[in-house]
Design goal:
The structure holds two protein chains of two kinds.
Chain A (H helix, E strand, L loop, with lengths): L14 H9 L5 H35 L2 H48 L4 H6 L2 H43 L1 H8 L2 H38 L1 H6 L3 H53 L5 H13 L1 H29 L9 H11 L19 E9 L5 E10 L4 E5 L6 H8 L7 E6 L2 E2 L5 H6 L1 E4 L8 E2 H6 L6 H10 L3 H6 L7 E2 L8 H14 L4 E5 L7 H15 L3 E5 L11 E6 L2 E6 L1 H7 L2 H10 L24
Parallel strand pairs in A: 3-10, 3-11, 6-9, 9-10
Antiparallel strand pairs in A: 1-2, 1-4, 4-5, 7-8, 11-12
Chain B lengths: L1 H12 L2 H34 L3 H48 L4 H5 L3 H43 L1 H7 L3 H38 L1 H6 L3 H54 L4 H42 L23 E10 L2 E11 L4 E5 L6 H6 L12 E3 L2 E2 L5 H6 L1 E4 L10 H5 L11 H10 L3 H6 L17 H14 L4 E5 L7 H16 L2 E5 L3 H4 L4 E6 L2 E6 L1 H7 L2 H17 L1
Parallel strand pairs in B: 3-8, 3-9, 6-7, 7-8
Antiparallel strand pairs in B: 1-2, 1-4, 4-5, 9-10
Classes of the chains: A alpha/beta, B alpha/beta.
Chain lengths: 627, 584
């Protein structure tokens, strides 16, 4: 659930972060001001209660003034109703503003995630990004809803009590305040330890969750390998750790509350001892003493509240730090901006001068040119080295090579999921970095090996967010042979897919993704490993659908299974990031090179001698390229 | 509900001594704290009448002493009762997990992992709140309530009766709002989970979203879910906004009545000022039990609902278990002979296998071929009893697999599934999973298994070699690497029977070829069953079974089947044709 880096708690207050956070409050500043007003009004009314008691005792009970008492009771009732209104307004407005801010923040984070480079997704697992959108934002909600504004309320109450006490009797007030250092000390001790132990408990809970998740998902494996006892022992250890961490934290709570109680009793004892003396001496009225006692009892709540908010603040700082880090990650792959680009183009490519004139037909729609392209996901660990090739409009090109040869990277670069390190890629005669991003991607349809379905119906999965009509969708589905299985589903095109809907087989998902690709009617089709393991029957269906899909389009297909691409116009063989061979199937076989060897390996007879001695492409440390 | 509570009792009774001591502490601390307004009463009265300073010191000391005693026992109470609740939580969670380990695959397929996890964490926590804080606060509430009211009556009966009028409303408010808030809260949780699902989908499928330029559409979809979540929260907030203020309102009304009537009593001379002050103090003390009462009932209600959800799991009987002692057969040694005898098997009401019969001699290699959904995977999953075959249909060494202990049965079988599941441990630990982890294993054996599965080359490229962690805290393996790790894992247990369920589907052609060459030697030493789509993979098998719609439609060696000119021959011709077309 959470990895260790999520657990690091930073400092409690960071002015820079706080200023930025408060910026989110700006659109709601009138509401926030209203809440603050209600808060102050509420605290003031709270403060008035003991004072009424004092007046009642000193003035009316002592004078036996019944009508005065009625007046006091009436005042008390007014205070109650006023408090009710203020408290409601304050809670409602604050929570509502908090929620609105969370809404805004989620939209902002999510919007940013739609823009950041794909590379960001390679570095950050989806789970972590989801935490930013959900959990981290919720932590901030607590800050806005219960924190920022109500701290003002607590401080106001505290100051109010102090002022009232000092006015009633400054000497007695100072005596009562003498317990304050004790409270601060106890609270500090508690806060420090509870924070520590809370962090411990959270770590254990994360461990329990991770362990359960893994063991439930992999229970069949556990059982097949008879690991029940061993895994139970491991679970027991984690469970015990969780229990002990919790029991430790009980200790702090068990000490804290009674300690605060004793401190408050100490204050009471001091007030009675010293204040009682003053009453006897006639310096203080009995009513004042009673009010003093009541005020001193109310003193403790805001203090422990404030210390609670301190923890909140700390968690919020950590969350906002993570959120802002995400928001501050710039998107480097963006649509062409003429002003910035004209300068860059000259500086970024020293090799540009060596490139010859463009091929004559390079400006025709559907033309692709890789021009001395180099690429590294990081540093100088090049995955593509000086790759140049041309794909003419309507040409169908297959790409083969062992895992890590750089095949998928080609697609990443062409779609501008990443930018080339050196060289350039031209589509329709234009450097893709000088095109509007949306226009570039509109030229392609991409079919990936792991078909991504979204929750929704078959139709919405083909249509995605576009305005294609049901007829368009139907036609596309029929054309790629997906119509037959769709008709067998309970609601046809309107059948739900995904967790709650029909379970589609790998082959069916594949056909669905073909229908999607076809419905968008692209000029260029890009296939990545489109035919993985399906049975022969389905494979034939898929192969036929592919023909439909490729008709009249420039196609680049990446595949392991050579059978799918051998009737392509041209096959490119990649090895260690270089384009080693290129030509039609028969030509390449004739060359007796890499392709011949790959081909042999796939179809060679079982009785052939051990070929393990053939030095084949070492993997360039397989990286996550797709999915 | 009674039955559910009875099921919880043994867990509580295990700690009855601690509970009794804890409850005694509750009684002491509550009793002691009740004396403090009493002292206040006398102090104020004495002040009213005039008193010496030394007596004031006695009162002060008494108040402090009372607080210290109360605090000590409050500390013990919390420590003991909450501590026991954590202990019970630990017991329950262990029992829960132990129970989970007994369930067969079908149990987990019918349920979502998240749901089971939530029972072991969220529900368990609700149960713990019931056996810990709920018991503690109930005891505290009852004692405080009864004693405080008795003391208030002793001060002034009439005033007590009037003062108590608003108090039940507090409980009602807590109870009503508590339940309503809980309901809305659950709705919000569901909305949050929708929001998460939308996010998860769009972020996992980021490449598709970008490639098809769906950023704006995704924003809109997210915006909708986000707005719904906002609206849900707003409804909750409105309720919460009413909840706390109305609670203080009713509590305040009690104080108001006391103030108004009490002061009249004082004036009338029926009540002393000290009594009046003490009465007020008791009112303040009573407000807590009133809140706690509503709160505790909600807690208990939620706890019982959660406990029932846990019992669903704890009381479920695993379908697949060791045979009854009378039927148990212990084989001195498994030789690896397998027989399917007129096996018919249905899953979810649908027949998956019909009248399948086959004999496999020890040391044979048998291949299963057939289209997707023909029952190949089901057939082999009956062998280690991942699903249970009907009695008298599946035999190992002539013994019904249902009569063997699960331990012996599964030890004899090395099973490599199509979708390999690896644990977030080191690669070495994963490979040695079946023999107690890497610490218990011979490093050379691990190297050997990794070599046969052709994982060795990959491992060289990993940052820490075999010690590299798999999963979120380590590296992400490709589908093919996972499959190969799973093969190595099965090999290391040195099983008598090796089962490969399309276990090379994600491995590239070259590597698959290498692995098969290396596996051949390993397979000769044991009985092997291979499921595959590809003729080249299975043509060397001693026996090939062709399945279609759950029936064996053809059987024999490669040559025999080709001569038979049926499904297999057709499949072979198709693949051969491709080969020839390609070679021409």
């Amino acid at each position: 659930m959470t990895s260790q880096d999520e657990e690091v708690l930073g400092k409690a207050y960071d002015a820079r972060l706080m200023r930025r956070l408060l910026g989110y409050l700006r659109p709601y500043k009138m509401l926030a001001a209203g809440a603050l007003g209600a808060l102050i009004g509420g605290s003031a009314l709270q403060l008035a209660q003991p004072y009424l008691m004092k007046v009642a005792i000193d003035r009316y009970i002592a004078q036996r003034d019944l009508s005065g008492l009625n007046l006091i009771a009436l005042g008390f009732l007014g205070i109650l109703i006023g408090s009710f209104v203020f408290e409601f307004l304050q809670t409602y407005i604050l929570q509502y503003v908090g929620q609105r801010i969370m809404f805004d923040m989620r939209m902002q984070i999510y919007g940013h995630l739609q823009r950041v480079d794909i590379q960001y997704y390679d570095r950050n697992p989806v789970g972590r990004l989801m935490t930013r959108v959900t959990t981290d934002v919720d932590v901030l909600n607590d800050l806005f809803a219960a924190g920022v504004v109500s701290v003002f309320g607590d401080v106001f109450t505290l100051l109010g009590i102090m002022v009232v006490l000092l006015t009633m009797s400054w000497k007695l007030a100072l005596v009562a305040f003498s317990v304050l250092p004790l409270i601060v000390f106890v609270t500090q001790w508690f806060r420090r330890n509870v924070r520590e132990s809370y962090r411990g408990v959270r770590l254990w809970i994360a461990k329990i969750n991770a362990f359960l998740q893994e063991n439930i998902s992999g229970m069949a494996t556990v059982q097949l390998f008879r690991r029940e006892a061993e895994n139970f022992a491991r679970f027991d250890a984690i469970d015990r750790g969780h229990r002990d961490a919790n029991i430790l934290s009980i200790f702090y709570y068990a000490v804290f509350y009674p300690a605060i109680e004793v401190t408050s009793a100490l204050a009471l004892a001091l007030i009675i001892w010293y204040g009682g003396g003053q009453v006897l001496a006639g310096v203080l009225t009995l009513g004042s003493l009673v009010a003093f006692i009541q005020y001193s009892q109310r003193f403790f709540r805001p203090i422990s509240d404030i210390s609670e908010k301190f923890n909140l603040l700390q968690a919020a700082m950590a969350s906002s730090e993570r959120i802002f880090t995400l928001l501050d990650t710039p998107a480097t792959i963006v649509s062409w901006q003429p002003a910035a680009a004209s300068r860059q183009l000259v500086t970024r490519d020293p090799l540009l001068a060596t490139i010859g004139p463009l091929p004559a037909d390079s400006c025709q729609p559907g033309h692709i040119l890789f021009d001395h392209v180099w690429f590294a996901y990081s540093g100088v660990d090049f995955v593509l080295r000086d790759v140049s090739f041309e794909v003419k409009p309507g040409q169908r090109v297959g790409v083969v090579g062992a895992t890590g040869a750089g095949k998928s990277t080609l697609i990443n670069l062409l779609m501008r999921f990443y930018d080339v390190s050196r060289g350039r890629i031209l589509v329709d005669g234009v450097d893709i970095r000088e095109m509007e991003l949306g226009r570039l991607r509109a030229l392609f349809s991409l079919v990936l090996q792991d078909v991504q379905l979204f929750s929704g119906t078959i139709a919405t999965n083909i249509r995605l967010g576009s305005t294609l009509s049901d007829d368009d969708i139907r036609r596309a589905a029929d054309a790629v042979h997906a119509g037959a299985f769709i008709d067998r589903l309970p609601n046809g095109l309107a059948s739900e897919v995904g967790e709650r809907g029909a379970n589609l087989s790998v082959g069916q998902k594949q056909l669905l993704s073909f229908a999607r690709a076809l419905a968008f009617d692209p000029r260029i089709l890009i296939l990545d490993e489109a035919t993985s393991s399906v049975d022969t029957e389905t494979e034939l269906l898929i192969r036929d659908a592919l023909k439909v899909l490729m008709a009249g389009r420039t196609t680049i297909a990446v595949a392991h299974r050579l059978s799918t691409i051998q009737d392509m116009d041209r096959i490119m063989v990649f090895h260690k990031g270089e384009l080693r061979e290129s030509g039609a199937h028969q030509e390449l076989l004739g060359q007796r090179g890499l392709y011949y060897r790959l081909y042999q390996l796939q179809y060679k007879d079982q009785e052939a001698p051990e070929t393990a001695t053939v030095p084949l492409p070492p993997r360039l440390g397989e990286r996550r390229q797709f999915g | 509900m009674f039955a559910a509570v009875r099921r919880l009792l043994p867990y509580l009774l295990r700690y009855r001594r601690q509970f009794l001591i804890g409850l005694a502490c509750v009684a002491v601390t509550t009793g002691v704290s009740l004396t403090s307004p009493w002292v206040l009463r006398h102090a104020v009265d004495d002040l009213y009448a005039g008193v010496t300073r030394s007596k004031l010191l006695v009162y002060s000391a008494a108040l402090l002493g009372i607080a210290l005693t109360g605090a000590t026992f409050r500390f013990l109470m919390r420590r003991i009762i909450i501590g026991v609740s954590r202990q019970i939580e630990y017991d329950l969670r262990n029992d829960f997990f132990a129970r989970l380990q007994l369930f067969p695959l079908s149990y987990f397929q019918a349920r979502r992992t998240g749901d089971l996890m939530s029972r072991a964490t969220n529900d368990l926590n609700a149960v713990r709140m019931t056996v810990g804080p709920a018991i503690m606060y109930s005891a505290n509430t009852i004692i405080l309530f009864v004693a405080a009211i008795a003391l208030m009556i002793s001060i002034d009966l009439r005033l007590t009766l009037v003062a108590l009028i608003p108090l039940p409303f507090v409980s009602i408010v807590v109870r009503y709002f508590g339940a309503a808030i809980h309901k809305r809260f659950e709705r919000i949780q569901a909305q949050l989970s929708d929001l998460s699902a939308v996010t998860q989908e769009a972020l996992s499928g980021v490449r598709v979203v970008r490639a098809y330029r769906q950023e704006a559409a995704e924003m809109e979809r997210f915006g909708r879910a986000n707005r719904e979540y906002l609206e849900g929260n707003r409804r909750l907030v409105r309720l919460q906004g009413f909840f706390y203020p109305s609670m203080s309102l009713f509590l305040g009304l009690g104080s108001l009545l006391v103030l108004w009537l009490g002061s009249r009593e004082v004036i009338a001379g029926r009540l002393t000022v000290g009594g009046f002050v003490a009465f007020n103090a008791y009112m303040v003390m009573l407000s807590w039990p009133m809140i706690a009462f509503g709160w505790v009932t909600n807690m208990v209600q939620r706890g019982l609902a959660s406990w029932k959800r846990m019992l669903d799991v704890l009381d479920a009987v695993p379908d697949i278990a060791d045979p009854a002692p009378g039927r148990l057969v212990v084989l001195p040694q498994v030789t690896g002979a397998i027989e399917f005898r007129d096996l018919t098997f249905a899953y979810g009401g649908r027949p998956v296998l019909e009248h399948v019969s086959a004999r496999i001699e020890p040391g044979q290699i048998v291949a299963l071929v057939g289209p997707t959904g023909s029952g190949k995977s089901t057939l082999i999953s009956l062998l280690p009893r991942l699903f249970d075959p009907p009695p008298g249909t599946v035999f190992i060494d002539g013994v019904d697999v249902r009569d063997l202990s699960l331990a012996q049965l599964r030890r004899a079988i090395g099973f490599v599934p199509q979708e390999a599941f690896l644990f977030s441990e080191s690669i070495a630990d994963n490979i040695a999973f079946g023999i107690g982890g890497a610490k218990a294993a011979d490093p050379e054996r691990i190297q050997w298994a990794a070599g046969v599965a052709r994982l060795d080359k990959d491992v060289e490229g990993f940052p820490n070699g075999l010690e590299t962690m798999v999963g979120e805290r380590g590296i992400t393996l490709s589908g093919g690497q996972k499959q190969r790790a799973a093969i190595a894992r099965a090999l290391l247990t040195d099983p008598r029977i090796l089962v490969l369920d399309d276990a090379l589907s994600a491995v590239d052609t070259y590597t698959e070829e290498e692995i098969l060459a290396r596996l051949r030697g390993v397979m000769r030493e044991r009985t092997s069953i291979i499921v595959s789509h590809r003729v080249s993979t299975v043509r060397d098998a001693d026996l090939i079974l062709v399945l279609e719609y759950g029936r064996v439609i053809e059987r024999g060696s490669h040559d025999e089947l080709v001569r038979l000119d049926g499904f297999y021959a057709e499949l072979y011709r198709k693949q051969l044709l491709e080969e020839e077309l390609a070679a021409s």
